[in-house]
Amino acid sequence: MKVTTGIRYGLRAAVQLAKEYRRGPVSVSLIARNEKISTQYLEQLLNRLKRGGVVKSIRGPQGGYMLMKNPKNIRVYDVVKSLEGDMCIVFCMASGSRQQCNVEEKCSTKMVWQKVNDAIVDVLRSISLEDLCGERSRK
Question: Which of 25, 66, 80, 112 is deepest in the core (most CB within 10 A)?
Answer without folding.
Answer: 80
